[in-house]
Amino acid sequence: xxxxxxxxxxxxxxxxxxxxxxxxxxxxxxxxxxxxxxxxxxxxxxxxxxxxxxxxxxxxxxxxxxxxxxxxxxxxxxxxxxxxxxxxxxxxxxxxxxxxxxxxxxxxxxxxxxxxxxxxxxxxxxxxxxxxxxxxxxxxxxxxxxxxxxxxxxxxxxxxxxxxxxxxxxxxxxxxxxxxxxxxxxxxxxxxxxxxxxxxxxxxxxxxxxxxxxxxxxxxxxxxxxxxxxxxxxxxxxxxxxxxxxxxxxxxxxxxxxxxxxxxxxxxxxxxx
Amino acid sequence: xxxxxxxxxxxxxxxxxxxxxxxxxxxxxxxxxxxxxxxxxxxxxxxxxxxxxxxxxxxxxxxxxxxxxxxxxxxxxxxxxxxxxxxxxxxxxxxxxxxxxxxxxxxxxxxxxxxxxxxxxxxxxxxxxxxxxxxxxxxxxxxxxxxxxxxxxxxxxxxxxxxxxxxxxxxxxxxxxxxxxxxxxxxxxxxxxxxxxxxxxxxxxxxxxxxxxxxxxxxxxxxxxxxxxxxxxxxxxxxxxxxxxxxxxxxxxxxxxxxxx
Lengths: 273, 261
Description:
In chain A, helix 1 (9-30) packs across helix 12 (244-266), helix 3 packs parallel to helix 7 (144-169) and helix 8 (172-180) packs antiparallel against helix 9. Chain A is built from 12 helices and no strands. By secondary structure, chain A is mainly α. In chain A, 43% of the residues are buried. By secondary structure, chain B is an all-alpha fold. Chain B has helices at residues 2-28, 45-52, 54-84, 90-105, 108-122, 128-153, 157-164, 169-198, 201-206, 214-223, 229-259. Chain B starts with a helix and ends with a helix. The chains are: A mainly alpha, B mainly alpha. Chains A and B meet through helix 1, helix 3, helix 4, helix 5 and helix 9 of A and helix 1, helix 3, helix 4, helix 5 and helix 6 of B.
């Protein structure tokens, strides 16, 4: 077929006009003192750095995303390992089962967690029936714990799939060879399986860590006042306080953290030879 | 054997965690209690209430319309994009790749608010076309990914064969590429439909006054307290998506079979 490079123009136009240009405008806004008219200034960034609240919030957001990522790895790795190396049957059905919840809205799942986790809710009833807790209320809803549980729930399927794909490629004979050279299972895991899975673990980490940084729905619905993160503070600026310029500055800082995390994490996703 | 048993046990635990919120939601949609409280008493009153709730029904229809337009536009744009870069050099391809994945890597919160700032900078009001464009921008990468995967697996020398037999490009596209790409177009369209249908963040920033989508309604009622109709409407959506998913899988399989006949 003839070259028809202009075929790309509608998509390229759309992405530049409604994704790249708006981001540039956002950066411009963040340097304006007030609204569209104000003068150029660094005041919003200075305010952000000087107020303890925002600095702590930034570290808290990064901390929550980090915890969620680690929990996802811890839950997903054994699952992927069992699927790829131990049971070996019904893999497609299991993969389907892991992907299906992806098709239900994040909002609806957060709402359902609210019902599960609240005091006097279903989880409390179940735990009490099993005599795992006493009469005291559960006290999870509207804490960071609730936010972390919901975020792990949303994102760990990505981790299972990326780790599974890298384990699937791992040649069994390497594990056998390690065993026959009388390595303990722990040594085999540490010296053979883990290094070969590293790219998978880190690509999964990008898919988990990065969206967690920009999470808004779960912290707002399940975190209450304790659970505020960068995402909820940006929303406050746009919908409650109408400090759009300051909101744009926080959003730009968030964007920089996102891009930096991708840059750092993707260095580890390449396969070493 | 013990290893296998433990493995299955672990998988079962994870799946329980994964499905608990979804199953609870579905069960609670048939519970009489307004506060999703136990003990469970069967009732269909929330479905009856839902049938009366004009606002929720309107919002659902609106979401379906927006998602359908988004799905169709995304497939067309993605197909054009991929046809456009056939035979083009890799530097351009890399550049386009990073442009296309941009809406995937940037939090939707930021994309939503920056489009809002664009409107404000241009002195424009929020409007339906811009809402649609926002949905298309965040859904397009998914359509491109699905179609690109299919395109990569195709042997494009068949288009040259077709051309050398005197077919013009138009004929080559409709007779050769389109049938080969169709399952992927369907899958890509479906994926962008779902992304748009579930999308809350973009609509939240860009929805014009007087309009509402289902996620916006759901968010509002979560904010203002328990509304068990949300359980009912979510159950309907989950069941509908699952059935569509199964249908898709069947269509894909039969069309894949047809290709190799």
